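Lay summary

Proteins are chains of building blocks that fold into shapes. Our project writes down both the chain and a compact code for its shape. Here are two examples, one after the other.
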Amino acid sequence: MLLRVIVLALSVQGEEPFCKLWGNPDIPLLSKTGDFILVLFYLSKIHNLNYKEYQFAETMIFAIEQINNRTDILPNVSLGYKIYDTCDTVPLAIKAAMALMSGAGEAQPSTLPCSQQSSIHAIIGHSASSPTIGIATLVGQFNIPVISHFATCACLSNRKEFPTFFRTIPSDYYQSRALAQLVKHFGWTWVGTIRSDNDYGNSGMATFIKAAEQEGICIEYSEVIYRTNSREKFLKTVEVIKMASSKTIVAFAIFIDMEFLIKELLLQNITGLQWVGSESWVSAKNVATKENYRIYKGAIGSENLHLINNLYTDASELRITYNVYKAVYTVAHALHDLLACQDSQGPCMANQKDTLPVQVSNFVNNGDYVNFDINGDPPARYDLVNWQLNVNGIIEFVTIGFYDIPKSVCSESCRPGTRKATKKGKPVCCFDCLPCAEGEISNSTDAVYCTKCPLEYRANKEKDQCILKDIEFLSYDEIMGRILIIFALLGALLSSTVTAVFFKFRDTPIVKANNSELSFLLLFSLTLCFLCSLTFIGEPTQWSCMLRQTAFGITFVLCISCVLGKTIVVLMAFRATMPGSNVMKCFGPTQQRLSVLSFTLLQTLTCIIWLVKHPPFPSKNISSNKEVIILECEMGSTVAFYIVLGYIGLLSVMCFVLAFLARKLPDNFNEAKFITFSMLVFCSVWITFIPSYISSPGKYTVAVEVFAILASSFGLLLCIFIPKCYIILLKPDKNSKKHLMEYLKCCAWLQSPQPLSNLAGFISKRKDE
């Protein structure tokens, strides 16, 4: 049967948007209104199973009516129900669940508000595992709890996939292990297996085979059956059974599939085999017929049943039926606690008042303690039953044992993520559970040792799985990277703007007086300094690593060489104003160019040797931070890096000392004072850079270096050039030859042998002008 999907069409006509059903929603077979609605999914119309499923439906109705008549639980609140028949098909189960999620029902109008939420508060069922998986997957997205009374697939214990699933029947994980231990107990070490081709059979048999191997049991064959298979496939399975040498068969299948297999086994009169079965078929009364006894004689598998011919009125086997009853009361108690929380009374779970699944745990009902574990499963308890024919020729299910897992331990089992540590002076069964160390995991229960994760992996929060470490580097996409990029481009733009201003006013005195050639070269080098910081941002590559430090080293030496040249020119210029001085001839334009070229070539040569001998390269740092992999550039040669950095520092100190010596020269156009202040900023930045660089972790190491580059570049640009731009653009009267000559005369007078005797003449001349 194909799955038909209910589509809700949104209309925007009018103020209130409404939704229209484009299909006929599933109508429940039985329903009753109430303040809270419980839903039962069951299967029928298949052989005689409808009797048992009708019994489940009647049990739910009985439990709800009983609760509605009580005053100690949910007073003044009524429970309602909707009961759907899914015919044991996954599509019909999902279709009904989707109708419930949309709020569609038998009494709904043709249009309804799109904001209307489902009135369903819990779902009981399904009886089969595969439909339950479909339902739980869908409604789990809406935090609606699903409590099954008969779905036993171990896969439903996965809390990540089914966060709101609970059940009042044990998981097949325990039944499969119990069957393996039962087979081992009787010494049957050579067996065949048969399973249903669905979630119930495949999951259950997988667990059985794993447990059987641990018990030393060998599997001769493993056959798959399903009720819709062709007769040829069933005959093939029968042929495998006939030709096999093993005489014990473990069948993990639903009874409908087993009925088809029984017919073929009867036709070929295959008898004399020992059958071990799961609870789905081994205690099914419609399978336990006198005719089938020839095949399943002595079968071992669930619970003491008396002889009642009518399956519907049979009240002796109420194990599963009672699971329905417990599921209804589980929801009722959870709702009771939830309403008490909202009324600020009763047991209230902090910060989880509106979450019904959290309330579905740890309550006592009619003396039967229902204790869901972290996977939503109850404790595992089983009756061991044996098919026996009584004196009247009727099959009885005789209880021959009981399988339980009582706890009598010195120490609880250590969960994954921990390891066992023996207590000193205690027997080996007494131990502590110690969390695995950082970077180590254990993915099994009662692990003796924790396993260290590979270098590029880290342990997850639970320490039961190794996951790939996050990769960290200073990225263009993160906020810090973008901020640094903005400042780098802003600096380059500002340097270009100052260059344009200087070029436009290149014939003015202030530009000429400040050595325009060195000024333009300095502005060009500052632009490169701002742009070279961009090479530090982004994922490190072979080329970016080689370019980072070398570009930084060369451009900064070019920059400092220009500043050093300007400083020397300032000192020489003021010495040259003294009578008879011939200093400027010693440091003219040619000497200035040669000094800048020499300083820069020396740094360039150092960088070339560095790149040839031990070039920087990208690497993965997995030791600095245990949680992330840091992509960074290894220096290749730490010595070369510090030589490059030290050379920049040496030139900076020389420049600062010379500028400091000239700081008291006259204030007008005082280049030395601005250079002194700019080098003070420059040196301060790089002095604080070293400890910050060493102590910063991961990508912040790169960010600190980029910040130092930008801060020192801005310091030079703003301190040296902004005062000049201020005069050029806002005080043009000071940018004149006349003003400059007064400045030079003042400088000459201050440095003359008799400044006081020349003072009167200078003032008189200034007045005449």
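And here is the second example, written the same way.
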Amino acid sequence: MVAAGAHRPGPLKQQNKAHKGGKHSGSSQRRAGGRVSVKAQPRRRIRDLSRVDRRHQALQLRRQRKEAVLAEKRSLGSRDGPPHLVVLVPLHSSAAARDTLRLLQSQDSAVVRVDEGKAGGFTLLCPRLKQRWRFVTAQAGDLHAVLDLAKVADSLLFILDPADGWDSAGEYCLSCLFAQGLPSYALAVPGGADLPPKKRIDARKKLAKAIEKRFPEAKLFPLNTEQESSLLLRHLATQKQRHLAFRDRRAHLLAYAAEFVPGQESNLVGTLKVSGFVRGQTLDVNSLVHIVGHGDFQMSQVDAPPDPLSLNPRVVKGQKRSQDMEIQDDSVNGTDEMEEDVKVLMKADPNKQESLQSEVVPDPMEGEQTWPTEEELQEAEASLKANRKVVKVPKGTSKYQAAWIVDDEEEGNQEDDDDEDDDIDDDMMEEAVSQEGESSEEGEEPAEEECETMTVSECLRDDQYDEKVEEDEEMLERYKQERMDEMFPDEVDTPRDVPARVRFQKYRGLKSFRTSPWDPKENLPRDYARIFQFQDFSRTRKNIFRQIEKEETEGASVGWYVTLHVCNVPVSVMESFKEGKPLVLFSLLPHEQKMSVLNFLVRRHPSNSEPVKAKEELIFHCGFRRFRASPLFSQHTSADKHKLERFLRPDAALVVTVYAPITFPPASVLLFKQRSNGMHDLIATGSLLSVDPDRIVIKRLVLSGHPFKIFSKTAVVRYMFFSREDVMWFKPVELRTKWGRRGHIKEPLGRFDPVFISAVLGRMWSSWAGETANGMFCFLLRDPWSHEVPF
């Protein structure tokens, strides 16, 4: 009996999940019996900090960063640190650089001035402020000297014109400096004191507005009085230093003095003794040093001569004047101060010293098979007999000479197989013209050439005019090629005189850059046996940088004045230093002397619009290095295969691939092109992307044909091939149109006249109006070998 109003469960009653007993954490631990799981526990337990603790931690981090910045400011230019290196860069042809130097030298009586002769600079020593500065003036018009000095400078002092600021040459110099990496800088405006006060204020406002684009937060320092020069020096000493990554991890120095000791075998090669202040990192005598623009070298020993720019020099009575004269004389003549109190810090250990080997010496017998068997020798001899040919040779010709004589039928089938596809038609045309000239002279007896004397006016023999016309014609041809490559990318005409299967035998049909497989180790050139490759480049780079940060290297510390004995240096290095060019040295990290394949991500500089073709010789400024190379251009994509670009595109970022010494990123790169008159044009800027020899660069060719007859699902296409054998050879390759319609070759049609050979294409699923059929063929391309060339 159920009471009225009682609840009765319906068909939709909730069904709860049953309790899974024995699977909670306590029971699982009991079942484990004390065993610990294989999963490793984290080394540092993550703790949830309270608000007060988080605030305190952030305050400590800010305090540490502030103290690090202050310590860096105090060490630079102090007694224990290197002198504050300031490079003066005039940005205008009428900028008063000499007035700037005169005002900076005219300080109070507490400042000691040491002139440096031909170097175009001086040193300020201020014992009262415990500061010392070294000012170096960059040579006007020498862009490479400015860039080399900016690599090691602590501060750049730009000298502006009070009216115009900078000219076109100054704008070009600023573009290069910003692309390479700009250290701390200051803007000085000497002159303008003779203008009326109102015009002076207007000129300064105009100049401040002009520099807003390049230097948004910069401050202009007028430089007309000694007080203004003191304010500028104070600003240089107290401003925050900007870091360049490629020099902070390497020891470097700017030569203060140098001496060349010729070797015993030759006077052209010897030991270069370079004196200067160590900057950046500790310098190890067993590491290699790179002299910018000249190459890599080993060191034999490191000496510690007395500091010529000491704030508190220890001088014996009666020798103060002679010591000052010695410093000035050494700086003028570029010799090293090797005196009795020179102390040898360290000597190189042959067991620990880095090797100068930059290339692998390939073994020609490596990978060779075993000695062939008797059956293989008999097969090879039979194939040689089958391939023997009968050639008509003059009487008395030996077998060795007859082997080099080429038959006329084979002469037309041989090709140079050069990568420059555009030069083939020109070679064929020249050959045809020469053959036509020879055929016209057949049957005629050789006659002596008749010569006569003519008087030619000087205006017709203007060599400079002819050279200018040739350069203009060559540039016009390059513009045409670039334009055609932009309108019809990778399209080439099928040759008429050479079978397509022979001309394009290195290529293969590629359906997709993204999905089609391609082995990066396939068909490698011989030069790849000479380079080095990392198993994991990123891991090696991280390990080297971690060792620099944590381990303390034995050697000359930062701020020491040392003399480096660099071995096997050519005398041209010393000659360039005597001419007034800067001598900059960088220590190399492990493996940085070895050759590999470097990939740079660059973008075309807007100031240059001339066409730049692949494999043209360019000048590279990569970090602290400077070398020449002939690069390849390729697209920058996320795929594993990258299409070759024949020209440097102005509207996209491209990857430049070269053989070059290994450099660990980050590092900036500048690409220059040398003109016929010796001037260098900046064509692209960027950074080092990777060191990867396995990056696949594929050269693509597109053969196009014209639709002759169009049916519902098939079409007849002609002018793609001119031989029935070529049609059958390329039959497996899939064809497509520019709108993405795809198909395959079914069969060749037409007469045997090569002009009318056509092909039936099947599975074309849409209209063919206004389209052409294309076949894409690719082959793996490696960049040409290039060396670091000093200049």
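What can we say about the second shape? The longest strand covers residues 696-710.
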